[in-house]
Amino acid sequence: MPHPGRRRPRMRGRTCAVTAALALLATGCAGAGGTSFGGGDALNVLMVNNPQMVELQKLTAKHFTKETGIKVHFTVLPENDVRDKISQDFSNQAGQYDVATISNFELPFFAKNGWLHPLDDYANADTAFDQEDILAPLRESLTAEDGKLYAQPFYGESSFLMYRKDVFEKQGLTMPEKPTWEQVAKLAEQTDGSERGMKGICLRGLPGWGEVIAPLTTVVNTMGGTWFTEDWEPRLTAPEFKKATKFYVDLVREHGELGAPQSGYAECLNNMTQGKTAMWYDATAGAGSLEAKGSPVKGKIGYVPAPVDRTKSSGWLYTWAWGLQKASKKADDAWKFVSWASSKEYEELVGATSGWSNVPAGKRASTYANPDYRAEAGAFADVTELAISEADPKNPGTQPRPTAGIQFVGVPEFTDLGTRVAQEISAAIAGRQSVDAALAASQKLAEKVAEEYR
């Protein structure tokens, strides 16, 4: 989604490049999952195997099907696999799947290629769904360049800083309400080794455009850098990008977790849960696991906004959302499923059956006003809502850029570019090369992408 009034990129030789890049839509998160598929009159849903989706699968027949008579067959796959399968099915408009989980990253490409069914008419007619209750940044991120709405969020997230309140108290340290990265680096130094086996901070170092690149790019943004200028000039060797990358690499090397080059979201979550790190900067979604029943650190964690340098805020914005395939012949039934799965009613169902900490939150204003949700999620609810509300994908840094996106660049080629740059950064974290060498190689990779858009 280019900025209004900005010069559109020239699309020389783009068709094959976009198709190939869309086939690579994959991130670094994965887990266990199963599949099922059925034809006939049943609705076929393809989705990622994240815990909240697995819970949805368990509840659908007993509640949605019982209420509507609409049978749903799920295909549930790890994130890397599901993105590839969705891209294949939707790009071919095969119609095998009626609904799929897509994110705000690929939605603009899917919409522009005519692969998605617009949802405005459904949302406007379905007053009980309450479209205005969806948090504005998510509504905007799921609205394409043509002004039409193409998906509804199942849950949303931003990023923030999590820290051990008890460890800080023992060390006589105070976490600022709105910390800067400079302050965080100092606190990481002070808490490093404060308990046996404890490091000062956990930051992703695992290669992948959805792993190390996500938090690193928020640091780049707030320190004044950008991947590309609004005219598609690559800036990975610019002083601001270098400063941010060196800061990140030095911080994780000096005070970060053991095995950082192999550590992603899952590893940092485990480190924080097991008391191996005093701080963790990552997705707001992690708080639910830290505060879950049985967590060794439940009640011990404090939550503050994503650290900043030159910007007011720096949290990212991400959502898993429901998209309807344009070729589906069951659009009406598909909307009924989407409306139910993203509804207030469904959140209340999860709260009643599985506990409010398991609710797919981060999408509705009403969730954060719900006393039942706040009773379980009060430690992080306000900070999460604020982070999502302040996220600005169109202007996340200090200078204009050619596409929307905070922790990613909104072009299909970024799946490949981001992952290859991540490999260079991870090698620098591992000490196999310097940051300057990593960024020099990365700049050349970015130049090849920029050539397609200038």
UniProtKB/TrEMBL annotation:
Keywords in alphabetical order: Signal
Pfam families recorded: SBP_bac_1
Cross-referenced SUPFAM superfamilies: Periplasmic binding protein-like II
Signal sequence, renumbered to the chain: 1-32
PROSITE patterns recorded: PROKAR_LIPOPROTEIN
InterPro entries: Bact_solute-bd_prot1, SBP
Top-level taxon of the source organism: Bacteria
Name of the protein: Sugar ABC transporter substrate-binding protein
Organism in which the protein naturally occurs: Streptomyces filamentosus
